[in-house]
Amino acid sequence: MxxxxxxxxxxxxxxxxxxxxxxxxxxxxxxxxxxxxxxxSIGGGAADLGKAFRKYGWDVPAALNNKVSSDQSLAPGDPAxxxxxxxxxxxxxxxxxxxxxxxxxxxxxxxLMMNFDTGSSDLWVFSTSLPVDxxxxxxxxxDPAKSNTFKPLQGATWTIxxxxxxxxxxxxxxxTVDIGxxxxxxxxxxxxxxxxxxxxxxxxxxxxxxxxxxxxxxVKPEQQKTFFENVQPSLDKPVFTANLRHHELGSYExxxxxxxxxxxxITYTPIDSSRGxxxxxxxxxxxxxxxxxxxxxxxxxIMDTGTTLILADDDxxxxxxxxxxxxxxxxxxxxxxxxxxxxxxxxxLGPTYMATVPGELMNFQRVGNGVCFGGMQSNNGxxxxxxxxxxxxxxxxxxxGGNQTVGFAPHK
Length: 412
What we know:
Layout: E1 2-9, E2 21-22, E3 29-31, E4 40-42, H1 44-55, H2 62-71, E5 74-76, E6 90-92, E7 102-107, E8 110-117, E9 123-126, H3 132-135, E10 151-161, E11 167-179, E12 182-195, H4 197-200, E13 207-210, H5 227-231, E14 239-243, E15 250-254, E16 267-270, E17 279-280, E18 284-287, E19 293-294, E20 301-303, E21 310-312, H6 314-321, E22 328-330, E23 333-337, E24 345-348, E25 354-357, H7 359-362, E26 363-368, E27 371-374, E28 376-378, E29 385-387, H8 389-392, E30 395-400, E31 405-410
């Protein structure tokens, strides 16, 4: 099982005039106590690849779509850890190969397990507005009637629609959201009232905390700010960090940069948030100890904690996997013989920093019969590259909302 620490540093907020405002708190570190939950595995690498395509509205190749549809059944995962409770750690519900990191939050006094996603900007939850049979499929559901602080946002609705026509939609209210002791009063919370089956298959996740930018929030008639945008003024620094690790405890921390977690200086690169994402340039790469190569038609790259794989331009994908004996593209995506030692992958994150993703991480997971699934897959010609957990597990990452930058350094 994997764990996530969540720490927050909050300064005193003196004004309560805005609709959503951080709760007054002393400066300090706020920790979430450890939770125990069972893990489940859903679908594997092909499912994660299909999910990423749907998330960004890309056409899912027919063969992959058919494969994912036939494979997405729930199966027991690793047993829960049996260690004693430990302050400051959150045991995550993980899919195979660290493919999902979930963490507990509290909305209106009700605990929920959520996915933290820098590639979207909605805070939505499974709720009692759903049909009763959909409320009993393993999710915890938020009940606004049990919250003393919930207020309906009259006339407000939200809808998330993916390229394969899967969807989730519902109504909106405001409530007090507490993540690791940092509270925002009047935070917009989107209540799912109707969801397609694809949203119900991940029985461990109770919803999503979007950490992108509010200009892609789906609430109508008026878009709402994200939790990070609302809590940012009360933090010691207007940042949060992703410290996700392979087969180890990981962490998200808001308001502070823990220098004990990375080697060397952090290299920052500017972002373009006009499309709502933490978007950077990524124009070169290298394989193993080879020379740096230019990606001639490089698409911008989105730093997305809610996606598991690296989805890169075809030129990059072809260059890397052509160096791996036995690698091939089939209905699932790119696979290779598990006994093959993969080369490291170095990728430009901005104009000056080259991140190294160890070959071990480029092996996403076993799919059976001695065949493994690649941690980097093709974006199928889409106009952007998506850098997900495979990359984050090699890099300590700083999301700096104040300076509109993203910073990187290798894990210590």
